[in-house]
Design brief:
mainly alpha, 16 helices, elongated, 3 domains
Length: about 325
């Protein structure tokens, strides 16, 4: 009889948690709190319910502030900022339910998307690449990768040399298992400007593993973005090579020359080493694809060896 009662209570608690999650998905935080408090009175030992209550309270505390913001841009900016704060908050919770977090994410992203659509109607001239990318991030958060990719492709046409947009597009392709497209675009993005890419926004398992490998190797947070393309090359992630156009090749060689000069003069910032290594990798790839003579390739390999012997040895292994 006791076992039947326990099972009955567990089923009731599960039902209440499902109701609370539905409330969270709609942004009804006060109602969700009441339902979760009822669930805790039935069984106070369930850590995931206590964590869900803390999540609901987090967003309830921000309701008044949200209600006071009438400008769509300011409202979405506040939501995005608080979403980042919330993610740090969740990291300190015990056994936070994936379903609870998913439903809260749906609420936040849907609200952001609503705000951006309002901006489009109020200021149609503001449909710039940044707005399109922000809308795409909302679609990605909702799991609508097709719409996210469509908006990011539009953004790329407006701003083709944006590392941030290319990285977001690559991340979306990774989410729909188009891994080759993802890796090609990630490689281009990190070459254009690793420092412009917000790593915390990237969900690709391959990129997350590379970041974890660098953290384990002792790389500091501020240098991970610059070193990621180097690690990606060494770990066989960035393997798709292409021949550079004459203008691209000329720009690549000029950039290499400038970085080499800065290294000799002692005027180079710390991120110059990984950036220069990545530029060498691109030059070698171009030489390989274009059938350049081996001595030209060996010349670049010697520069890699002189710059970082460990990277050289792993690269030629």
């Amino acid at each position: 009889m006791a076992e039947r009662q326990l099972s009955f209570t567990a089923n009731e608690v599960a039902h209440l948690v499902n109701r609370a999650n539905a409330c969270l998905r709609e942004g009804a935080f006060t109602k969700a709190i009441r339902v979760l408090e009822r669930a805790l009175r039935m069984d106070a030992e369930i850590t995931s319910v206590a964590s869900a209550l803390k999540c609901a309270t987090f967003w309830q505390d921000r309701e008044a502030r949200l209600a006071a913001i009438t400008d769509p841009y300011d409202r979405t900016a506040y939501l995005e900022q608080q979403w980042e704060v919330f993610q740090s908050f969740v990291g300190r919770l015990e056994e936070a339910s994936e379903r609870t977090l998913f439903d809260i994410r749906r609420y936040v992203m849907a609200e952001c998307l609503r705000g951006y659509r309002s901006l489009q109607k109020i200021h149609p001239e503001r449909e710039d690449a940044d707005l399109l990318m922000r809308m795409a991030r909302s679609f990605k958060g909702l799991g609508d990768y097709a719409s996210a990719i469509e908006h990011l492709q539009h953004a790329c046409r407006k701003q083709p040399q944006s590392a941030a947009i290319l990285a977001e597009l690559a991340d979306c392709y990774a989410s729909i298992d188009e891994e080759r497209n993802a890796r090609v675009l990630f490689r281009e993005a990190f070459f254009i400007g690793a420092e412009a890419i917000e790593l915390d926004r990237l969900e690709s398992p391959v990129i997350r593993r590379l970041i974890a490998a660098m953290e384990q190797a002792g790389r500091q947070a501020g240098e991970i973005a610059s070193w990621l393309p180097v690690y990606a090359t060494l770990h066989g992630v960035f393997t798709v090579k292409r021949m550079l156009k004459p203008l691209e090749l000329g720009h690549l060689k000029q950039t290499i020359f400038s970085m080499e000069r800065d290294m000799v003069c002692g005027a180079a910032p710390p991120q110059t080493t990984p950036r220069l290594l990545n530029h060498y990798f691109w030059l070698i790839d171009h030489y390989v694809v274009s059938g350049e003579a081996k001595p030209r390739i060996d010349e670049v390999l010697a520069k890699i060896r002189d710059l970082d012997r460990q990277v050289h040895d792993e690269y030629v292994r």
